[in-house]
Amino acid sequence: MEEKTAVASLAALAQGMRLRIFRVLVGAAPLGMTPGELSATLDVPGSTLSFHLKELMHAGLVTQQREGRNLIYRPAIEQMNELLAYLTAHCCQGAGCEVVSAPACKPTDKPTDKSTSKPTDKPTSKPTSKPTSKPTSKPISKPISVPIKSSTSCR
User: Fold this and answer.
1) Under a CB-based contact definition with an 8 Å cutoff, are residues 50 and 62 in contact?
2) Which 3-state string (H, E, C) describes the chain?
3) Alpha-carbon distance 121 to 110, whole Å?
4) Contact 85/1 with Cβ under 8 angstroms?
5) Which residues pair with 138 in a beta bridge?
6) What is the pLDDT of residues 62-90, one digit of tens each?
7) What is the pLDDT of residues 123-148, one digit of tens each?
8) Greatest CA separation found in the chain?
9) CB atoms within 10 A of CB 23
10) Which of 34, 90, 114, 139 is deepest in the core (most CB within 10 A)?
11) 22: nearest Cα among 40, 42, 6, 3
12) C-alpha Rg value of the chain to the nearest Å
């Protein structure tokens, strides 16, 4: 993927409504959704939805296909995967990243004495260190559940 294409894709997803639309379409893949289904799921007017779908299509992240009288929008999964590969291509300077599994991070059953690293029977009531910073961002939206329907008629 070229840098110009990656920038266009990221710019399209940098808007909240377009990101929500894309996430709903990814959840509905490979069946896709009609504009009516998208509008009802996201509670967004059709004209607003049409504008955002056009921007996502221009960035190559969404495809449109006519099935009878309906337009079906689907995520361009290959484009999404290429974008992810582009973003992670130089992760860990190309050396491959080591993933720490959850069991390796599991705390011991008993607290340990720091000076001897041996388990101790006294309970710890206070945390030993304070967090260095508080999270500054909140989630943009609540998770969106995508109903999968066999019907593709417009509403």
Assistant:
1) no
2) CCHHHHHHHHHHHCCHHHHHHHHHHHHHCCCCECHHHHHHHHCCCHHHHHHHHHHHHHCCCEEEEEECCEEEEEECHHHHHHHHHHHHCCHHHHCCCCCCCHHHHCCCCCCEECCCCEECCCCCCCCCCCCCCCCCCCCCCCCCCCCCCCCCCCC
3) 7
4) yes
5) none
6) 999 999 999 999 999 999 999 999 998 88
7) 444 444 444 444 444 444 444 555 44
8) 74
9) 17
10) 34
11) 42
12) 23
Residue in the block written with tokens 């006519």: 66
**What would the two tokens of residue 15 be?**
């808007």
61 contact partners, CB below 8 Å, separation of at least 6: 9, 12, 13, 22, 75, 76, 79, 80
- Tokens (6 digits) for 138: 């909140």
Provide the token pair at 83.
């974008």
